[in-house]
Amino acid sequence: METLVNKQWLLNELNTPYELPGNAIAFYQKNGYVKLKHVLSEDVLAYYGDIITELVFRLNTLIKPMEERTTYERAFLQIMNLWREDEQAKEFVFSKRLAKIATDLMGVEGVRLYHDQALYKEPSGGITPWHADQFYWPLASPNTVTVWIPLQETPMEMGPLAFAEGSQHVEIGRDIEISDESEAILAQALQRQNFPLNDTPFDLGEVSYHAGWTFHRAGPNVSGKPRKVMTMIYMDKDQTIMQPRNSYQIADHATWLNSVPVGQKPQDELNPVLFSY
């Protein structure tokens, strides 16, 4: 009986509104990201973290030794759309609490799910090079945001996410895939334009939200434990699909948007509305 009651508490937390700090929306709009403390409890992270971790290791197909991997492969194990694999993972991904925050930060009427992805940086995992996520997405509007949820406390040695503040407004590097090249070119360009860098640890229960065009990176994991992170990518519920501009967007159009015709809105089956006013 107690397990059922506890589970109900967890579900209640996932679907109860979070009180945004007074300056959070303005900070996000200006800087293209925001870090928020105490968004999820230790109990929620432990319960759903175990479920997500089991799925990651069951579904992972990247088993090459670290020294044989590309820079991208060394950055993390990446498992997508866990919500379609497991009903309990779906409870976490469909959290109204997290989706409402995304809605309020972007100042839209509601959000759809683009897709979720677990990003597990293994011990000895390398850097995540500088990049902007929306390079990969055939979406017409910049109203997209990713919530980055560490499933454990994430000190510097684990490689927490770092952000170039205000970089969502610049056109540089929007045509570069995540790679050694993107790390070198963007590090130089962002430094030249004096974008402040927020490179700080994450407390347990702290999460970040970053816009689709905000440049970000992460350091290597030099700790002895995996850096376990779950993410959900949200888009304005009124987002429209645009003509893909590169091979990655062509693939994303087919995989995450079910090849819905250009100019139309995503469909509810694959891209459900998770929160709406």
UniProtKB/TrEMBL annotation:
UniProt xrefs under InterPro entries: Phytyl_CoA_dOase-like (IPR008775)
Cofactor requirements of the protein: Fe(2+)
Keyword Flavoprotein: no
Swiss-Prot/TrEMBL keywords: Dioxygenase, Oxidoreductase
GO MF terms held by the record: 2-oxoglutarate-dependent dioxygenase activity; iron ion binding
Segments crossing the lipid bilayer: none
Name recorded for this polypeptide: Phytanoyl-CoA dioxygenase
Protein source organism: Spirosoma montaniterrae
Lineage of the species this protein comes from: Bacteria, Pseudomonadati, Bacteroidota, Cytophagia, Cytophagales
